[in-house]
Design goal:
The chain is α+β, with helices and mostly antiparallel strands and 224 residues long. It is built from eight helices and eight strands; from the N terminus they run H-H-E-E-H-E-H-E-H-H-E-E-H-E-E-H. The chain has one domain: Muramoyl-pentapeptide Carboxypeptidase, domain 2 (2-Layer Sandwich). Helix 5 packs across helix 6 (116-123). It binds zinc ion.
């Protein structure tokens, strides 16, 4: 079997745009809060695109923040030299739309009109179903002694080996991805196995993953 066939198989298993679009939302009006720096949880924005909206802070919903703190506690109780680092949280709908349109323009030649929404969604979540604009999704990794563990790829890098279960990464990277996944899932985050760093709570992806009757968070426009 060729390497690309294995990537294709892994991608086929991912839930896609059409799985999410019908998920209903029963919105709870929870506030967005900045993630404070603590002994085992830090933030380090990976992009500057949110600077005009939230300055240097990363915002998430209140329950998401509580769950991140629980996850960080759990991790440091297992290894006090480790901490969680969040590099992205809430993203405006406008930024999501711009990212999506840019990706769509790049892929337009390669796919038919019918295939295009799913194809683009694999790289950049479709604006209608995206988790980051709900404040429920985070991009996150584990640091040890302030340095990222080996996860096989850099966080946020859209390459085939970002698929969580890529068999072409080292044993150590595989173990580290599973550690992150286990920690996050133990406090109710849903993984997105197309990107080892992306997890969410309360959005459509989370509802679909855990077969909840509805999602908890609407997308929203927010700035400080
Ligand atoms: Zn993400």
């Amino acid at each position: 079997m060729k390497k690309q066939d294995i990537y294709d198989l892994l991608e086929e298993k991912l839930l896609g745009y059409l799985d999410y679009v019908e998920v209903p939302i029963k919105s709870c009006d929870e506030v967005l809060l900045p993630i404070p720096t603590t002994a085992n949880l830090i933030t380090s924005p990976i992009d500057e695109d949110m600077l005009p909206y939230t300055a240097h802070q990363i915002y998430v919903r209140q329950t998401v923040l509580e769950k991140l703190s629980q996850a960080a506690e759990l991790l440091s109780s297992q290894d006090p030299t480790m901490e969680l680092e969040v590099v992205y949280g809430y993203r405006t709908k406008e930024i999501q739309m711009n990212l999506f349109e840019k990706c769509q323009a790049e892929l337009k030649q390669r796919f038919s009109e019918a295939e295009l929404p799913e194809a683009v969604h694999k790289y950049i979540a479709s604006p209608e179903v995206a988790g980051h604009p709900t404040g429920g999704a985070v991009d996150i990794q584990i640091l040890k002694d302030r340095k990222p563990l080996d996860f096989g790829t850099k966080i946020g890098k859209l390459v085939s080996d970002s698929l969580t279960f890529s068999p072409f990464i080292s044993k150590e990277a595989w173990y580290n991805r599973q550690l992150l996944r286990r920690i996050m899932m133990s406090v109710d985050f849903a993984p997105f196995d197309g990107e080892w760093w992306h997890f969410s709570y309360g959005d459509k992806e989370w509802a679909k993953y855990y077969e909840k009757p509805f999602a908890l968070y609407e997308q929203l426009d927010f700035r400080i």
